[in-house]
What we know:
Blueprint: H1 24-27, H2 32-40, H3 72-84, H4 88-100, H5 105-115, H6 117-121, H7 130-148, H8 151-159, H9 165-176, H10 182-190, H11 197-207, H12 215-221, H13 227-240, H14 246-254, H15 260-274, H16 285-297, E1 308-314, E2 319-325, H17 327-345, H18 350-368, H19 378-385, H20 389-401, H21 405-416, H22 432-436, H23 442-455, H24 467-472, E3 482-486, H25 490-502, E4 506-510, H26 513-522, E5 526-532, H27 543-552, E6 561-565, H28 569-572, H29 575-579, E7 584-587, H30 592-599, H31 608-626, H32 641-647, H33 654-661, H34 667-678, H35 684-701, H36 707-719, H37 723-738
Parallel strand pairs: 3-4, 3-5, 5-6, 6-7
Antiparallel strand pairs: 1-2
Helix pairs in contact: 2-3, 3-4, 3-5, 5-7, 8-9, 8-10, 10-11, 11-13, 12-13, 13-15, 14-15, 14-16, 14-17, 16-17, 16-18, 17-18, 18-19, 18-20, 18-21, 19-21, 20-21, 21-23, 23-31, 26-27, 31-33, 32-33, 32-34, 33-35, 34-35, 34-36, 35-37, 36-37
Amino acid sequence: MRGNRQTSSDRRGRGLPGGRAPSRARLRPRSAAARLLLALLVSGPVVALLTAVPAPAQPPGPELFAVDPRDPQELWAAIDYLVQTRQAAKAVPYLERFSKAEVSDEALAAIRERYGIGSILRLADDRATARYAEPLVARFAEASRRYATMPERLAALTAELTGSPQEQNFAVAGLREAGPYAVPAILEAMQKPGVPPEARALYVKNLGRLDRSTVPALLAAVEADDPAVAADAADALGRIGEPTAVPFLTYAAAAPGTPAPVKEAARAAIARLTGRPYGSRGHAPERVLSDAAWRFHRHEVEFPSDPVIVWAWDADRKVPAPRAMKKADAERALGLKLADQAVRLAPGDLDARAARASLALEGAVERVGFNDFPGKEQAAFDAAAKEGPGVLAEVLRRAAADGKDDLAAAAAMALARDIRPEDLARDGRPHPLVDALVAPGRRTQLAAARAIANLDPKGPFPGSSRVVPALARFLAAEPPPRAVVIDSNANRGSQVAGALSGLGYYALMELEGGQGFLAAADSADTELVFVAHALEGNRAWTLTDVLTNLKRDARTANLPVYVYGPLHLDVERPSIPRNFPGVKFIVQPVSPEVLGQLLGGRPSRLTPADRSRYAAEAASLLAKIAGRPDGPFAADLAAAGPALIFALNIPESRESAAAALAEVPTTGAQRSLADIVLDPAYEAPYRAAAARHLARSIARFGPLVSGDQETQLVADASSEPDAAAREAIAAAVSSLRARASGNTRTKSDASAPAPRAPGR
């Protein structure tokens, strides 16, 4: 075959890969001249020495080349020789020419076959040639891939699979170079009319001798319409020995409608891959499928590249076909496929349905962006809502625990569509929406608070006191996200806390487990908890105690929890993820950069536009709550007073904040409203609205304004130039006079100020 070194004359023209050239180390003579001659005479007498040169201390350089290297083979012979003889700087002109030359894939493949990948990688060892190493490695690799997958080459190699044992061995070696692209060629040959049974058996046997790179294409072939092809693909997968194929074989092994030959082959393959008879693994098929779907959803499956080549069965061509996809799309497509199969096997399985709904909902949000959801993905939103409260509550819980803020918020929005106020107090425990008020994600918190406020519950329910504080958090300046580190070793814990601080977290370290738990539960801004794998000298709480309390308390149950320590904690402490779902192991980080890679990025922060919009909505919801003085949240409004006062100066939220402050029975709330009314820097319409809210506050709670404020209000009631504002201020003064008898302070305590000029 072109570009392959043939080992004997009887194999010429057969399209078979040749053996490797003998080791260069074994053939290298001792003298420098002989080394030069061997290095340059690699493909015939293309470069030669003019005369014999005695062995000098320094190996001969290009100045002694009889002819200047010209074609790709000659150029690389010179490059390889000069680099190996430590004359890398002299190889640069030849590298320049080689890099700019148009070299065929066949020629590049032949050079790589002759010299090996080490000849290219050695370029990185010298400063003079290092910049050529990476682009040339990529160029050779891509050329080798294209060459290995040439249709005529694959056809020639596939034809040899039914030949002698030696021919089969050579063909399998060549087809392995093509990776998954060898599978369609072999299946196509197998399905040709007139293929005798003994030839088909050889095709199937050699299909199972390919390497693990062929697994994606073979898994696609398990879904072939022809049961014989599907069974042969399953059989090959079992003999190749890649355990990650088990979930993708599970549906064929368990589904009632699977043809008997395919079911038998899939079960035999699973037994071979797991080392146990099918059905004795202790996990129901739907659980195997849903667990695998969650792994894709959580980005726990490694892919060789991005984009990813995903294989699917082409019913028209009757072979597997590749399709390039972004990594995120591939994760979602494969996860959805497995989750859907799990639901088909067990339609009532909550875990499977939650996995399917979660993957579909996240995909919809990512397609249009959170701010355009559900408006531009109404069909996906409706489909999610139809899953029902039980499934959506599980989606919300898992998304919050996984730190998927957008998904959790979308699940909260869908869950809110089909619940009633009485559902909030149904079983005596906080509803999932209530738990979401303290989830580690601002969008989730607001979506949950919005849903609960809009339900307009008439009475208290478990966790009802969390609603107002959750909304109030959106009115203040956004604090940095908190991370709690629990470690009895101060030096080790400080290192982890420092790495978290470098990522933008406010890191709080506690030496004792109980204090660490309280620190995590204390603030809804806590986004992460890190716990040392060994709490040395900790007499109060062990690691198990810390994890138990974190996962049982509603305030911390949804927080991402990481147990850090040395490598292989999953082997040393296998019971932790089993007993505490959602807890993850992480290698102790040594820097913010390393920690960022382990966590998958820095903490998400709201954009300024999002903060303004969310503050306005939170203020509006608080105003709505304030308008229901008999509701379950009225008693909590006083605690939101400082945040509402702060929001009076935010243009997007100030009017709603003023309306809410009218229902807050504190001196600070009423006097802040009076300050707005009396400040001429504010627009007249805003001051008029504040005056109306001030009048309501005085009517409800009596006069709490200062003496100076009262005196100025009386003056402005007649001197305010804006008619609407003047009328509203007069109403506030009327409320003051109506409640004067209940005020311990008398108007005579305040001196009358001079009226303001009408044109102020």
